[in-house]
Amino acid sequence: MLDRYPQLYMLGQQNAFFTPTSFWLWFANAIYHSLVLYGFSIILFWGDLKQADGLDTGHWFWGTTLYLAVLLTVLGKAALVSDLWTKYTVAAIPGSFIFTMISLPLYALAAPAIGFSTEYAGIVRCLWSNSVFYLTLLLLPMVCLIRDYVWKYYRRTYKPASYHIAQELQKYNIPDYRPRQEQFQKAIKKVRAVQRMRKNRGFAFSQTEDGGKQDQARLIRAYDTSQSHARPSGL
Prior knowledge:
InterPro entries: ATPase_P-typ_TM_dom_sf, P_typ_ATPase_c
Organism: Thanatephorus cucumeris (strain AG1-IB / isolate 7/3/14)
Enzyme class: hydrolase
Low-confidence stretches: none
Number of domains: 1
Number of helices: 10
Membrane topology: Multi-pass membrane protein
Mean pLDDT: 79
Protein name: Phospholipid-translocating ATPase
Order of helices and strands: HHHHHHHHHH
Distance between the termini: 73 Å
Radius of gyration: 39 Å
């Protein structure tokens, strides 16, 4: 991409991606996400939740739910800022949450059985059967990331940077008719190949390689064309 669009180098030279301003904006955004996650979870779990047997769910239920909501928010933010999706990106972002959801029941089953993290005993059954748990996982990350999504949509649609335009060209296979660096390099290679061919052009063999044979050029010069009998009649 940098060969096709050399102007993208200017973004790194201008330090456009990491500045003190961008650092503090990211810091403020993290504080905003934290306040939203904590505040909304307090509202959803206000007065504690009651289970089917009448017992309270407890703060371990709330803490585990909030942790999973935070994890989804962080992974969603990482997905929003990712410019390139590969198998490693998929393994790191969706794969992290899938791994957590698989590991949590295993840990909640094994840890209390060997004498630690006894608070997790039976918590998975409570989580999986509670509608507030699913509502929290869906609602809180959406509330946190809706502002980030709107801002990214606005930037890419109305104030795109140069690398945004290059990404759109590649994504939708839009033809770019401007001269490209690789085309220029191919043209240079062709010119050099032609020059080498002209320099090395010659006969594959010589008629005078055998010293015993008479030189053809000397024989032609010795032929006297001024005499009429020497001229071919054509008949």
